[in-house]
Amino acid sequence: MNKQDILQYFSKRYSDKFKAYPSSIKSEKDNYFFLSRDNYKKYLIVIGTHGICKDFKGDNLEEIKIDKDELFLKVCYLNHHNLNLLRGIFPHLNPSFCGLRASFGTGDRLGIATPAHIQAFKDKDIFPVLAQQSVREMARTERNWQKVLDDTIWGCFEAGYEDPFGADADHVKEIKELKEAADCGFTMFTLDPSDFINKDIEELNEQELNQLYNKIPKNKEIEKLYLNKKFKIDGQELIFDEKSLEKIVLTYSEAINHVVKRYEFLKDYKKSNFDLEISVDETPTVTSPLAHLFVVLEFKRRGVNFQNLALHFLGDWQKGIEYIGEVKQFAKEFSLHAAIAKKIGGYKLSLHTGSDKFSVYPIFARETEGFYHIKTAGTSWLEEAKVIAMKDPALYREIHHFALENFEKDRASYNLTTDLSRIPNIDELSDEQLADLFNKPDSRQLIHITYGSILKARDSEGKYIFKNRIYKILFEYEEDHYRELSNHIKRHLELLSSI
Ligand SMILES: [Zn+2]
Questions:
Q1: Of 170, 333, 356, 367, which residue is the catalytic one?
Q2: What's the CA gap between 158 and 114, in Å, rounded?
Q3: Nearest residue to 33 via CA among 46, 42, 20
Q4: CA-to-CA distance for 298 and 253, rounded, in angstroms?
């Protein structure tokens, strides 16, 4: 008896009820596990000994005969208990450490995108971080760490994926959140000290700056290490003169302390290897090469073992659309950042808001010589919304109108130049024209940033207005969903690996 026999038996006997995902089938001793679906949801099918079937939660346990073998078949739920059992039997389902390999994060707000993401990574030498969600996104999607990770792992199981992947607890600020994510099995932690980055430095006069600076503990120690020190990087000389050092110390010292504390917690708490990313991207100030050099040297000096560093790079980085700014200018400044990273060594540069920044990808991959990490999230949601526009235009029209009503409120936490007046009136568009809205920056951003409001919207009886219908249509048109999404992510990955 082999996997083929099992699948054949199942499809012969249950084809009226379920459809199996053939690539998901895995065996361990005489037990077989695979995913199947009916018209409403997915199930884990376990075929094997009574002992193994008993452990999994589900219903209709039946005794079956395949050839001469007496076996049991159980239709099981996609719940946390069953997933944990599977993770125990098949360790490849557990996320793992990435280290300094080139890597790419695919946030998945709906929790159903992993099989499509995996397709996109096929034959690419880029480590996939398949689970990735920020604390803010979880609030907007009403999910939690466990759900984010479980959904990803079920996706890996469905695709039959056996290679390593990462799980990134993104933009974490509090120790409590780190602890929860570590308990769930996350392997990568992105620390966000942006609340502790001093943003008012530019507005202070010299006297005020000096006063503040003198209050910083150990500032003399810092001066000894950095003042007037020269760093030769890529033919350029970077030097910490009094003024620039003072400003950098004032801007970043609290944030550095914040990161050190959280790192020390993780080092003690997380027993296995983990990836640490430090992100200073969400601040209004562009990170200068000198500031980059300072924070990296300080983290190293204070014993923080980090793999990724996300800076606020030059230019206007907006959600779900191309890079806005002079690409040449970016390339010039970025090559200095890359040279600093090369010179100090031991970490990768990370790009956040990486969705659809096609024009800068080749530069990012080339200059870092493969020492990069890139994060995307919203672009997967946009592909999903596009599939809704293609397959259920009426639902998309409702979502679109709702998004327009919520745009002003939702834009507050984003940096955007969206102009709603440039979006065509969809009442005048034919159904066939709707998908084209996803080729235009303004309509992309409209749907991109209102995702939380769309997913959370409830009617007067407390029922979701869109959420369940969104899942239903993507479930019904799963092949289209996977195809559109994987093609779009592939476009990203190809630009990175063509270098
Ligand atoms: Zn970020």
A1: 170
A2: 9
A3: 46
A4: 9
Residue 194 near residue 255, CB atoms below 8 Å: yes
pLDDT tens-place string over residues 290-306: 999 999 999 999 999 99
Neighbours of 296 (CB within 10 A): 22
For range 446-451, the mean pLDDT: 97
Over residues 213-231, the mean pLDDT reads 93
Cβ-proximal residues to 8 (8 Å cutoff; 6+ apart), any chain: none
DSSP alpha helices (H): ranges in 90-241?
114-121, 135-141, 145-159, 175-184, 206-214, 219-226
In DSSP notation, 432-480 reads GGGGGGGGSHHHHHHHHHTHHHHHH-B-TTS-BSSHHHHHHHHHHTHHH
Distance 351 CA to ligand 1 centre (A): 8
Query: Measured in angstroms, how far is the CA atom of residue 68 from the centroid of ligand 1?
Result: 57
| Cα of 275 from ligand 1 centre, angstroms | 16
- Residue located via tokens 């100090």: 344
- Which residue matches tokens 């700056």? 209
Using the predicted structure, report yes or no on whether residue 274 has a pLDDT greater than 90: yes
Which residue type occupies 9? Y
Q: Could you tell me the distance, in angstroms and rounded to a whole number, from the CA of residue 21 to the centre of ligand 1?
A: 35
The CA 340 to ligand 1 mean position distance, Å, reads 21
Q: How far away, in angstroms, is 171 Cα from ligand 1 center?
A: 7
Please state at what angle helix 393-410 crosses helix 467-476, rounded to 10 degrees.
Answer: 140
* Rounded distance between C-alpha atoms, residue 367 and residue 42, angstroms: 44
Please report, in angstroms and rounded to a whole number, the separation of the first and last CA atoms in the chain.
46
Position 499 scores a pLDDT of 59
From the candidates 277, 367, 383, 384, give the one annotated as an active-site residue: 277
Q: Output phi, psi for 127, to 5 deg.
A: -70, 125
One-letter amino acid of 291: A
CA distance 431 to 437: 11
Q: 440 with 382: CB under 8 angstroms?
A: no
* Structure confidence by residue, pLDDT tens digits, 402-447: 999 999 999 998 889 999 999 999 999 999 999 999 999 999 999 9
Asked if residues 118 and 127 have their Cβ atoms less than 8 Å apart, the reply is no
Single-letter amino acid, residue 252: Y
Kindly give the residue spans of alpha helices, DSSP state H, lying in 276-350.
289-301, 327-344
Q: How far is the CA of 205 from the centre of ligand 1 (A)?
A: 31
In 215-326, alpha helices (H)? 219-226, 242-269, 289-301
Q: How far is the CA of 369 from the centre of ligand 1 (A)?
A: 22
Active site residue 277: yes
CA distance 381 to 469: 15
Per-residue pLDDT tens over the stretch 309-368: 999 999 999 999 999 999 999 999 999 999 999 999 999 999 999 999 999 999 999 999
Beta bridge partners, 26, equal: 33
